[in-house]
Design goal:
Layout lengths: L2 E7 H5 L5 E3 L11 H17 L4 E10 L4 E6 L1 H19 L3 H15 E3 L5 E3 L1 E2 L2 H11 L14 H21 L5 H16 L2 E7 L1
Parallel strand pairs: 2-4, 2-7, 3-8
Antiparallel strand pairs: 1-8, 3-4, 5-6
């Protein structure tokens, strides 16, 4: 088995325009609970305020060049959670109207999806087949759905709760700010800081 290890920023991980990251069906469904999500949020917010580097651990991938895809061998829970976090930031920016719309579109088109010159787009991350339609509709589509009902499928419900948690935490922070411009500035700066988070990427063959 051959492998290559590389220290990269999350931005380099997400802005991969040649292949889609795929979570294989044998991987367990999304399982993060509030404790894990809360710890991640607190760590990210602290590193943002302290202007410190944040290390997100190791993620393992297996490229499938013939299929233009990359299988996520280890790190699928974190990858899914980060995509939901980016969706929460995007939607918070959209709520700011024209002031935040351009930034929201950049997150959508550069991080959450890849958009091609002819207008077509594809998700950066494709989760397991039985969850992909739900995930794409609720977190990877812009504009997002106007109504978010709690789903019945357990892994979908966890995704829903993760989004609701991040959205409420964003509201807590922006609710203390004096005006819309300050909110937009924070959300964009936070997304930029998030893109600089470090991760060890290992590709195996």
């Amino acid at each position: 088995m051959k492998f290559d290890a590389e220290d990269i920023a999350l931005n380099d991980l997400f802005t991969n325009n040649s292949s889609t990251y795929m979570i294989p069906r044998y991987q367990r469904p999304y399982s993060w609970e509030r404790e894990q999500i809360s710890e991640l949020w607190n760590d990210l917010l602290e590193s943002f305020h302290e202007r410190e580097d944040f290390f997100f651990g190791t993620m393992i991938f297996c490229p499938n060049p013939n299929e233009n895809s990359i299988s996520v061998v280890d790190g699928q829970q974190r990858f899914t959670t980060l995509t939901i976090l980016y969706a929460s930031i995007r939607d918070a920016l959209l709520e700011m109207g024209e002031t935040g719309e351009d930034y929201a579109n950049r997150i959508q088109n550069e991080i959450i999806t890849s958009t091609f010159s002819f207008g077509d787009w594809r998700p950066t991350l494709s989760v397991q087949e039985n969850s992909q339609d739900y995930f794409k509709k609720h977190f990877q589509t812009n504009p997002p759905p106007k109504e978010r009902r709690v789903p019945k499928v357990r892994s979908w419900k966890r995704m829903h709760r993760t989004y609701a948690f991040f959205s409420s935490k964003i509201d807590e922070v922006t609710g203390r700010m004096p005006d819309e411009a300050s909110c937009v500035e924070f959300l964009w700066d936070f997304s930029l800081a998030l893109s600089k988070v470090r991760v060890i990427r290992i590709d195996v063959e």
